[in-house]
Amino acid sequence: MAKLIKTTSLSLWPRSDTSKIMDEKMQQNHTTRNSWLGILLIIWVGSNLRSPITAVGPILDEIKSAMDLDNIQASFLTSIPLIVFASCSILVSKATEKLNIRHGLIYSLAILILGLYLRVAGSVTTLYLGSVLIGLGICVGNVLTPAYIKNEFPAKIGLMTGIFSVSMNLVAALASGFSISIGEWTGAGWKGSLSVWIVVAVIALLIVIAELFWGKKPVNRQVNTSENIKFNIFRSKQAWNISLFMGLQSLVYYCLVAFLPTVLMEYGMSKSAAGWVFSILQLAMLPVMLISPIVASKMKDPKSMIYLIGVLYSAGILMLLLLKDQYIYFTAILLGVAGGLAFSLAILFLSSRSKTMVGTIKISGKAQSIGYLIAAFGPPLFGKLHDYALSWSYSFYFLLLVIVLMTVFGRRSARPRFVEEH
Asked: Which end of the chain is more exposed for a tag (fewer CB within 10 A), N or C?
């Protein structure tokens, strides 16, 4: 009997070791699944945060004709979401401070899907109401996604920020480029071009729900008393630095979006050629958006990258001013690299310059409200200066001044100081 007990007890040890190994493998598989679900969430949510807006521009004339809108009424279809971003981001950040991030993203996508549906429902009223809801849904996603990245990938903030930036801007570019073709392919015209983004939003919603139930258990860091530092975001100097950097870099980009093709056509380029130049600018942004947050996140103070943005942007604007359409593709690459660097660092600072989840949500709301408010004044002022001077010279001088200010506030934002403390 003693021998049997001894033999049995000895035989149990290998089974215990095997069980431990199996548990470790299961845990590794679970962690891998969590990571992939989180990455898919970032990619698909990011894909919905610009494309519903950029898809409108190429088919705006078709919408005007179908809905009997004048130019001012039609312009609201793209300006309404931006107005919502500027007016609601701070309110959204306050409303979502104590909300589970995944739940907030579900609300964001549900509002977005409803807005996308109403926009193509068939009346002018639903067209505008849908645009408001689209702006609100994207606004919530803009504020919460950087917080999700900080919460779920604290050791890979740079990489995940790069993936988020690339997915957002790549799909936005595809939405603009293929908007007309999608309408023709679906046979539904402008409604087909815009309603296809409902499918993209639904896929994103399903991924967030899957991540909520099958990902790792949510850690609501906002309510952790050790991290819940009370502070006023409007008294934080670092928060103002980041907000102004966000706004000024957005202003430069939106001025180029609005007027670069027009400038080039006035220089003598065809509409098609001018469109290709802008496409090259956007393509040049993408690899930089992926790589630069990874590099910057490993630097204590990425001041060299801020200075590089200022130099590249200034060089590109000066080439447009002095050389006009000569070496224009090289100019587009310079502007694209500068824009990609500026945008990705602005997004990175939202999470890397905050110590807590509450801090990330607050600075996301403040920076995007102030940023879009500043950016909204850029294109009208750029165009007004052209009308005043009857040339683009003063408009480009204006951008050079903005780039100097952007570099100053970008340098301050890059310093390793947190919004909760400065």
From this structure: N
